[in-house]
Request: fold
Amino acid sequence: MNNIVLHIDHVHKTFAGLHALADVNLDIRQGETHAIIGPNGAGKSTLLNVCVGRLEPTQGKVLFDGVELTGRHPHEICQLGVARVFQTPEIFGDLTVIENVMMSMLARRDGAFSLHLFSRFDAQHEIVSTAEKVLTDLGLGYHFNHLASALSRGDKRRLELAMCLTQKPKLLLLDEPTAGMARADTNATVDLLKKIKQSGMTIVIIEHDMHVVFSLADRITVLANGRVIAQGAPEEIKGNPKVIEAYLGDEEL
Amino acid sequence: MRNTKVRDVILLGCFAVAAVAAPLLAAPFGAGYPDLLVKFAIFGIFAVGFNILFGLTGYLSFGHAVFLGVGSYAAVWSFKLVSVNILPAVIGAILVSGLFALAIGYVSLRRSGIYFSILTLAFAQMCYNLAYSVLTPITNGETGLRVLRDDPRYLDSAVGVLGQSPSLFGLPMTGWTGYYVCAAVLVVAFAFSVAIFRSPFGMTLRAIKTNQNRMGYTGFNSRPYLLTAFVISGMYAGLAGSLMAATDPLAGAERMQWTASGEVVLMTILGGAGTLLGPVLGSGVIKYFENIFSAYNEAQLGTTLSFLPESIHDGVVKTLSLFVGEGWQLTLGLLFMVVVIFLPGGIMEGVMRVFRVKHTPPVKSLGDSAQRDIVGESVIEEMPADYGAHPAPEKALAEAKIGTTAQ
Reply:
């Protein structure tokens, strides 16, 4: 059990009678990239929301590194080492790109609350240089001093990813990181995620693009109508008739 | 990221010089007398503090005058019980108003947006009404709390000081010395606000204004940051209130009325919320209108416009007289409308446009008025030539090609 990072235990989530999640069990292993797929409305995003504390499960619990996450605030869960990239990028639009990354490093360094009233934000030299390096690595080198809201959608995603990476999380949750991207951008993102994966990061990814799923995932969980209908290595999933019926349909693989 | 430290020092230096030279600078506008300049300084402090909450976090408190009133009462009680020296009064007022802010903020900050504003307004009205009813032993009701000849003043009687009017170690708080004491406090208060704006704490407050959702997923707990900002700005208001009591030792509950709370909101928005200098300018403009413009009468207008030909002179004077004197609020209202419609970033946005210091980020609404100040560093600069989607690395392109051929 030691290598289980995230343990989702009999989680139910009901929205006014609608079973968004029904008895979901899922173990995420240390260092793996685990894809969660399923048709629209299958409960994929709800599952991630339960994991980061945005929603509380109706029943069941979520353990991260042996610590129960249920009922904790998002900032506590984040401080424990869970980072999340959203489907629509959630960034600080009125701050510059580098300030965005610096904020996330500040949270990592000083914790959920610290009272730095008299030091200067732009004089935190270690943070500035690390932030510059991370941004350059992610191809946002030109944009240090642009307002984050002025970035293109793809760049906003990259920025959000940069913010998550600088938190040095133990678990990275990605909600459709390539939605709405052009093919070339998608490929660049896949390359980037491969690099992150090679660094040993545990990743959970929700994705519709099968090209992305099969080039990244070590294991795949298929959700439909809030239930896990299949789980296993990509090859097993490809051949599973239930999955093909519920989701893949006649999509080319 | 540019180092703005030198610019901040210059800004602060200019601010201090302007505060010292204010009597000369304001004289041409007919405002160069101490009573008015003291008002500029006190309301400047009030607005600078309000701006730390509203300008940085976007939380619009509609009950900030409570802390002004509480500060005044605390200061007068200090004059009555401790000493006529303003030092204990100022410190006491800051502490007491800080405690009030802690209690009111703790409850009000459970909500955001309009609900937060309504909660603060409700607290303010509650305090205002209590001051006239059950709290009259402390506030002396409608008569107002004043310093009396036979007040105990324990500290003064112990050391044998005999004065009865507030002073700073013997410096009277009236006339020009009064102004310079207030101006010195304003400069210190302004310097503190610059420090907050530049600190990691200040940046965190800006981040809260931008996206509170992301704050949680970045690992920040927003609530204590907001509460700290609320308490700091409440303390500024308490400080302003104590100086009010020091220059005019009579504290009345009308200082806590909702109109007073609204006034500081207007000052901050008029000057430019979220800018360093804006609130000071805004409070200056409003106090100028209230005191000078309102005293400008039809006869004076007639003499000023005597160069006009006889035929239109009377008509012009009659029309314009609607806007001066008792009609000063009409002019102020129009000015406010013009500023909000054309310069949502306030007077400071206008100043920056005139000097073309920087392009400010476009402002969509009051709630997210320009975050930057005159020496602010953030702006949309020229985009580099290759701005836009990044070309995928060679390797990825090659893979993509393999992918398509395989299909």
